[in-house]
Amino acid sequence: MMNSATNRLKEFQAEHNAYTKGPLSLLVQLTRMVRAKNLPLDPNDFLTENKGQVAGLGGANLKKILEEYGINRTLASEGGRTSRGNMGLMIKYLEFLNAWHAAEVINFDDAESFWAEQVRDYFNNLPFTLTADPSRTIGASLDELFEQAKKRQKENPGTQYLGTMLQHLVAARLSLLLPPGKFEIHGASVADSTTDRSGDFVISNTIFHCTTAPGEPLIQKCKMNIHAGCLPVIITIFNRVRTALDLATDADLSGRIEVWDIQQFLSTNVNEHSLFDGTARNAKLAEIIGKYNAIIDEKETDPSLRIEFEAK
Known about the structure:
Elements: H1 3-15, H2 21-33, H3 59-67, H4 86-103, H5 108-124, E1 128-132, H6 138-155, H7 161-177, E2 201-203, E3 206-210, H8 216-227, E4 231-236, H9 241-250, E5 258-261, H10 262-273, H11 278-299, E6 307-311
Parallel strand pairs: 1-6, 3-4, 4-5
Antiparallel strand pairs: 2-3
């Protein structure tokens, strides 16, 4: 997209504070609709019969457009049809397009792509959500949280949301368990697998390795830990525990490396420290999430890694 086009659209977005789901739902669909119209555009052509809403908006339509850009999440179930302020925004956007058209030819492919990217950014900047439901296990709630991270990671190739989340959840739990200064916390971008550090967390003679994909290099690092007289502990996601155990066996290290899944690690701690009292579990879980968010604020630059805790 030409810089002039990007700048025009960014200025419009900033002027009208079009960063939330209602305005974005309208602007994505309206940009698609104007392709079939001759410019200059008349706002009356985009009204329903009763003049009360913007015509053509709908959840299915919005979903179809966003899927063309690889965005498979629901922005607005009604597609912005009932959002307050969309009527006025529609008029302002058409005035903006008319003025732009008078100055130069508009590439609507670029304009639509711009708004789709703003939707992507909107989703990427939302915190993750952990919902604590007393009718379900903590492990099940964590599974749903990790699925959110996997989905966001899939939508943004090259990112490691799940691995970062896992590492800092472990850090949060250990921080609440141990005295201040007992171990050092690093940002996820300086994971031990890419540095000379012996592990993600070193506590006395126990060395923790946090990973979503245990592999041969990690096993070699665990072997070095053992040779140094330390106990290596691998914390991974549930469906990678078997992989880690098999790798340890293949390296003749069976019985010398602890392998824990993150769900059980957190669930066991929460239940033990709440004295198995269901009414106290949420408070303990909320404490972990609060510490996790504090670590994110201090060690990471992406605030979308934060987790919003919801208790039912």
